[in-house]
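Please complete every field before forwarding. Incomplete forms are returned to the sender.

SECTION A: IDENTIFIERS
Entry label: holo-270
Bound molecule: manganese (II) ion
Molecule representation: SMILES string

SECTION B: INPUTS
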Amino acid sequence: MNASNHTYRPEPLRMTNQRKGILEEVQKARQHLTADEVYELVRKKQPRISLSTVYRNLEKMADAGILARLELSGNQRRYDWNTDMHHHARCVRCGAVRDVPVDAGVELDLGSQAINGFAVSGFRLEFKGICEKCR
Amino acid sequence: MNASNHTYRPEPLRMTNQRKGILEEVQKARQHLTADEVYELVRKKQPRISLSTVYRNLEKMADAGILARLELSGNQRRYDWNTDMHHHARCVRCGAVRDVPVDAGVELDLGSQAINGFAVSGFRLEFKGICEKCR
DNA sequence: AATAATAATAGTAATTATTCCTAAAAGTCA
DNA sequence: TGACTTTTAGGAATAATTACTATTATTATT
Ligand SMILES: [Mn+2]
Ligand SMILES: [Mn+2]
Ligand SMILES: [Zn+2]
Ligand SMILES: [Zn+2]
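SECTION C: PREDICTED COMPLEX
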């Protein structure tokens, strides 16, 4: 029931050189990179790539689920190679972002799916603190 | 123990007309306003106020704890009249932001204060879902 | 293979949110 | 009053992101 009645055109995603280069850097960096950082990395191998291509493709691949948009408060947008559900911790001193596994001292009861009339479909948890380097 | 050793100069905050107008609007709106929205509201009563004054004073008053900075993912910054600890839920359709009381189905164990070498001092929890209007 | 249709690109301009700068105005206080 | 400090308005500057456009590359169709 309630199936969509018009056929999906699956939006072909051509795997261009630029796209491949971008994805590669994001995946091998194993960090949470900004568009600008990705640009600087890809540039080394593809000096003619443009910044807007990087922006566009990070967004496209995030939409496609190939990588994850990392939404942190009040910052430059970052992208995550890790598309699995996990949380993040940010150092208030140096701004470093660390992964936090879902079970690390965190228990979140989403059983009551309706908060204040909201149909809750997900949540985002962001820790703040001070990393070991900054102590 | 561990008290700061230099005396605090308590940073005098003059309660100017502009400041009063800004605070008033934030508090009576009972919404999570952006700087721009505050500007438009205050303008009605103080047509000569400048946008940068609004920005500057929202920041100052947030620093002073008179109002709260509301940090949501990837958005324009918003300010909260409510400085008590609480969470927020955002509607993915219309963007509306609702308050979520700290005890609403949420149990977060911060007993283990060290996550991954991080000295955790706080966290931010943001729900996403669909509000009643958008269903 | 040639042609047509579609998608992606580089480079740049435009937009948006925010912060910075500066000279003038207003508030504080001895 | 006069010195000092804070705040202001208005505009310029910055930073991140998005939009535009002519060109190039890829895929589909004859
Ligand atoms: Mn991550
Ligand atoms: Mn709130
Ligand atoms: Zn740090
Ligand atoms: Zn809604």
